[in-house]
Design a protein that fits this description.
- The protein is of the alpha+beta class.
- It folds into 3 domains: about 10-260, no CATH class; about 265-350, Alpha-Beta Plaits (2-Layer Sandwich), CATH 3.30.70; about 355-420, Roll (Ubiquitin-like (UB roll)).
- Helix content is about 35%, strand content about 30%.
- It is built from 11 helices and 18 strands.
- A 5-stranded mixed β-sheet has the order 9-4-1-11-10.
- A hairpin with a 2-residue loop joins β2 and β3.
- α1 (about 25-35) runs parallel beside α5 and α1 crosses α7 (about 215-220).
- The longest helix has 22 residues, at about 105-125.
């Protein structure tokens, strides 16, 4: 968790939506509170009032408000003319506006994915395609304004290259009345967006709508990982964005923290360590259990000899797994071994990134391709190099040379190549 395994990131973003949920205006207000350029955001939103956008007299109000003792930034966007747009037209408007603003490829992709996620959810609920989906609340100026505003703000803050975490989102409860009548909370579009992206959520803590479709669409298209707790980080900035309503039970704000990872170049991930003691199963069952656990997604499985009460020999079955696989793998352990309980310990582990490089070697006139596994930290520094055994064996047989000598030649060449690619 201290650094993204999908790329090098020197910043972490933590979106805390576990109390008051998430909405588009809350997200944008929080980014403004974090220091995003207000002039750029307002200019992008007001451009929706151009003839192409069709929204008349777009007004943007940004102010500081109090929510249960917390100072937060609130943004309100209004228009006195709302053009009738179908889903396809709204998508085209957001994508064209993002391009006209000169946003980066990542910012444009985010805006496109967010609006498409939202409109596709609406279309799926009503059984229409995008061109036949007639929008009501989603067609208001708030929707394109918030998505474009968030894209501009994220780019201004340089957060498209950050690792973004979020808590499970609170959706509220009860019912809500909108253009299609009274529906339960979360609203159908919000639930569809969260379900289609496997994003965890929870009801409450109060009976009102806390997560809106626009907020959900922004969230699922930004977050790299969901976590109930903060990752290992040093906080640099904290921002609060307020929704329009004020509730007596809670501070109706979204909190976003920007920080930097606390590590020395090593990748870091959150894992679960599962353990149980076994002393009454056969070796065949133990072996089969290990195989099944690996097939079911365990990262590593080991058996540790031990002595239990009355000096009876036994074993500790230890499994390293992703947190999300805890329950599934615990069930496998119980089913196969008959144990009555599995200990789950959640922790972080420091790891090296593993890369496979294919290179051509020429030995005694024989040219062969060899795969070499290299381990690197998140700054690109090489730690270890290891050629694949089967490739070495093939080269040794083709050249009639000892495997040990072939390995040394390949290792030397691989080290020379990879060290030239290392960052200075």
């Amino acid at each position: 968790m201290c650094a993204s395994q999908n790329g090098v990131s020197d910043r972490i973003v933590f979106v805390d939506c576990q109390t008051a949920g998430v909405a588009g205006d809350m997200f944008l207000g929080t980014l403004i509170d974090l220091g995003a350029n207000v002039e750029s955001i307002v200019s992008a939103i007001k451009a929706l009032g151009n003839p192409e956008g069709g929204y008349g007299n777009v007004e943007v109000e940004i102010k500081k408000v109090m929510r249960r003792g917390l100072t937060a930034t609130q943004i309100d966007v209004k228009s006195d003319v709302t053009p009738k747009k179908n889903g396809l037209e709204l998508v085209e408007l957001v994508e064209k506006s993002a391009a006209n603003l000169g946003l980066s490829a990542k910012a444009r992709q985010f805006a496109s994915r967010a609006i498409r996620t939202l409109v596709n959810a609406e279309a799926g609920i009503h059984g229409n395609n995008l061109a036949d989906t007639h929008l009501h609340e989603v067609g208001l100026v708030d929707t394109p304004a918030e998505i474009l505003g968030v894209a501009v703000a994220l780019e201004d803050l340089g957060l498209f290259n950050a690792k973004i975490y979020a808590t499970p989102v609170s959706v509220g409860g009860g019912t809500i009345k909108f253009s299609h009548g009274i529906v339960p909370i979360p609203a159908p579009a919000t639930l569809t967006i969260l379900q289609s992206n496997n994003f965890p959520f929870k009801g409450g803590p109060i009976e009102v709508e806390l997560a809106t479709p626009t907020g959900a669409a922004i969230l699922v298209n930004l977050v790299d990982e969901v976590s109930r707790v903060y990752p290992c980080m040093q906080p640099l900035k904290v921002g609060y964005g307020a929704a329009t309503k004020d509730f007596p039970e809670l501070a109706n704000v979204l909190r976003i923290t920007i920080g930097k990872p606390l590590n020395e170049g090593l990748l870091c991930e959150e894992i679960a360590v599962l353990e149980t003691n076994i002393d009454d199963v056969t070796g065949e069952i133990v072996g089969y259990t290990l195989e099944r656990l690996l097939l079911e997604g365990a990262k590593d499985v080991s058996i540790i000899p031990m002595f239990t009460k009355k000096s009876r020999p036994g074993q500790i079955l230890k499994v390293i797994a992703d947190k999300k696989d805890t329950e599934c793998l615990s069930r496998v352990i119980m089913e196969e071994t008959g144990t009555l309980g599995v200990r789950a310990i959640f922790c972080e582990r420091h790891i090296l990134n593993r890369e496979l490089h294919e290179m051509e070697v020429s030995i005694n006139g024989v040219k062969e391709k060899v795969n070499v596994k290299a381990t690197k930290d998140n700054k690109g520094r090489v730690f270890h190099i290891k050629p694949e055994y089967e490739d070495l064996k093939r080269v040794a047989e083709a050249t009639k040379m000892p495997l040990r000598e072939v390995s040394e030649i390949v290792m030397t060449k691989a080290r020379d190549i990879l060290q030239k690619r290392q960052p200075t």
